[in-house]
């Protein structure tokens, strides 16, 4: 081969290697980001058996030979006696501590324990006032009192109550006045009831109670009343339907559900990568694939909900599933204002954007500048005040039922 041919072959080989390296770099760059192993987990040898027992260390003073355990049973009689004599003083007991000494020791142990605690303090969730209200309320329910002729046991009431808990699209329920506690409660076995009340919700996010749903409610109440031999005082249909429409109008004007979109700037995310970064902010997985929630201090409805592609979450190889966007949602009427839900939403969005190299957008994928996001907080405070004035405070039991 001539020098020119050799040079061209070498140049072709170098060019081919550069092309292969560039393709590998591009594929690595565009591959979905994967979850990282825990930092505090030491690297594990793949061939290491967890059930393997470690041998005792060798004593270099004995020439590297393994020392077998030595005891009186393996010693000659003379050595065994000498061994017992030497071991006798070692088996001494600690002196008992009196009260002051014990307190001092406890203080020292407490200081040692505090010394091992992390330097930062985990913030406590804000306290949410707990309200004791019956499940039925005339503010959002049409209620029909039911008066039986005698005390009804809970077992009998449960047998004759309607099998469905809805009238159309509205929740329906029957409560009993407990003879012992004199409190309204859901029907349960073992209790005795002196009175009942049936109620149907006037409105929810589906709409207002209509005439057909009210008629279904009346039919259910009448069947139950006849079964327990009771008289019932049914509310006026036209009046309750009018109340339902007015309540639905108010709820429609004061309902708010905020949703932010987080989009990947460059490389996509794998489901494991999303879950790992969300878990660091307190999110926990839900039963539905592709959904996580930030728990609320009051329980019940979560404070925030994170959703991403459910198909990617159910893929066989989660490391190869690509996610380029996810949604952060806040159901405003469902969360108490004392938990500062919008601030928590901003904090979670900023934390995820910073950790995952994302950008904050609206539901259409348009980037949201700070000048657009900041005024939302003032609007929410005004919304909270209006809900409070109607005794439908955000996060309360009535608000959760109405905005559901």
UniProtKB/TrEMBL annotation:
It comes from the Bacteria. GO terms for biological process: cell division. Residues 29-116 are annotated as: Disordered. Residues 96-116 have a biased composition (Low complexity). Residues 254-383 form the ZipA C-terminal FtsZ-binding domain. Keywords: Cell cycle, Cell division, Membrane, Transmembrane, Transmembrane helix. The chain crosses the membrane at residues 6-25. Signal peptide: none annotated. This is Cell division protein FtsZ. It comes from Acidovorax bellezanensis.
